[in-house]
Design brief:
CATH architecture of the largest domain: 3-Layer(aba) Sandwich
Number of helices: 14
CATH class of the largest domain: Alpha Beta
Largest sheet: 8 strands, mixed
Helix content: 25-40%
Structural class: alpha/beta
Low-confidence stretches: 205-212
CATH topology of the largest domain: Carbamate kinase
Distance between the termini: 39 Å
Mean pLDDT: 88
Number of strands: 17
Number of domains: 2
Shape: globular
Radius of gyration: 22 Å
Oligomer: single chain
Strand content: 15-25%
Strand order of the largest sheet: 5-6-4-1-7-11-12-10
């Protein structure tokens, strides 16, 4: 039950798993698709974060990735990304699973508004009974705005989508006290609750022929997950049906967060130093918030300040006393247009609708 207790899982796939003996490992992708289908049928939402566009692009073009310049990387990635997405489509479509491609840069996950947009796209792919497939947008990202590895990208995706679990499929079956490829006396670590200096020292950096990163970037990914209330599982992915094998044998390293994802998000909202503006609500809205309801436009009286969707704002009552803090789903200009109206009428007023609520209860902290 190591995975079946999760409601939303991010699966990270490295380039080295997609290339075997200098060929694209179609058998492995097929077997992984079987595992994903089983989880999907159990109503577990799956997000795939996969590397491989450049590696597969090089295979397709029959060129070496060595000594490629950034612009050449970008062009190879553009070609390889098509082959990569078609590889997953070929096998997941046989399981009657739709897929949606999402390409992200570092800025997309660090900027709140962009992160919300990415999350909304993923949520809507789920509604269409699909599996989002995420990769770094190597075609446009420069060295200054690149992750450079998909380990940390996967952790950020897990964070912004409030996922329960990140499964890091690697060429190694977990974290060891030393590099097991070099030291026979290396001991496997089953659980990690705190990233200590000792843990950091045990992470030996390694780079494969096809992938980038190593154990160091996986530890960095674990830090992000643990801070956001998401557990991370590091396990061997090079076997066929790696998720089924994980469920059966449970041989892995589990990085356990010291908080749940709900409390992590609330803590982040509460610690926001600078709010961009404020929303004044009527007594009915205030009472609804106290009872655990979201903030709807009908209960909004006034908007102060200039802010964008995804910014943190204060929620005030009619006496200008702070009721709470929240992340808004609409800009100040949009809220000014929809204040006082029912959610059903948002589209008539704006011409579109992002959400029915201005601030969702999950993105709000009340001041007691």
């Amino acid at each position: 039950m190591i995975l079946k207790k999760s409601k939303r899982i991010v699966i990270k796939i490295g380039s080295s798993l997609l290339i075997k003996k200098n060929k694209i490992n179609t058998t492995w992708v097929n077997k992984l698709s079987e595992d994903i289908s089983k989880l999907w049928k159990n109503k577990i939402e799956i997000i795939i974060v996969t590397s491989g566009a450049i590696a597969i692009g090089c295979k397709y073009l029959k060129i070496s990735r060595k000594n490629l310049k950034l612009k050449e990387y970008q062009a190879v990635s553009a070609i390889g990304q098509i082959e990569l997405i078609n590889l997953f489509k070929k096998f997941l479509s046989k399981k009657k699973i739709n897929i949606g491609q999402i390409l992200l840069t570092l800025e997309d996950t660090e900027n709140r508004r962009r992160a919300l947009n990415a999350k909304d796209t993923i949520e809507n792919i789920f509604k269409l009974k699909g599996v989002p497939i995420v990769n770094e947008n190597d075609t446009t990202a420069t060295n200054e705005i690149r992750y450079g590895d998909n380990d940390r990208l996967a952790a950020r995706v897990a964070q912004i989508t409030s996922s329960d679990t990140l499964v890091m499929l690697s060429d190694i079956d977990g974290l060891y006290t030393k590099d097991p490829k070099k030291f026979k006396n290396a001991k496997h670590i089953r659980e990690v609750k705190t990233i200590t200096d000792k843990i950091l020292k045990s992470a030996s950096k390694s780079v494969t022929d096809y992938g980038s990163g190593g154990m160091v970037t996986k530890i960095e990914a674990a830090k992000i997950c643990m801070a956001s209330g998401c557990r991370m599982i590091l396990t061997k992915g090079s076997v066929n049906n790696p998720l089924s094998k994980l469920e059966k044998e449970k041989f892995c390293t589990v990085f356990i967060p010291n908080t749940n994802r709900y409390n992590a998000k609330k803590k982040w909202i509460r610690s926001s130093i600078k709010n961009k503006g404020s929303i004044i609500v009527d007594d009915g809205a205030k009472n609804a918030l106290i009872k655990g309801k979201s903030l709807l436009p009908v209960g909004i009286i006034e908007v102060n300040g200039k802010f964008d969707r995804g910014d943190t704002v204060s929620i005030l009552n009619k006496l200008n006393n702070k009721v709470g803090i929240g992340v808004t789903s609409y800009s100040s200009d949009e809220i000014s247009k929809i204040k006082g109206i029912k959610s059903d009428n948002i589209k008539d007023r704006l011409g579109y609708i992002s959400r029915g609520e201005v601030i969702h209860i999950d993105n709000m902290v009340l001041i007691k």
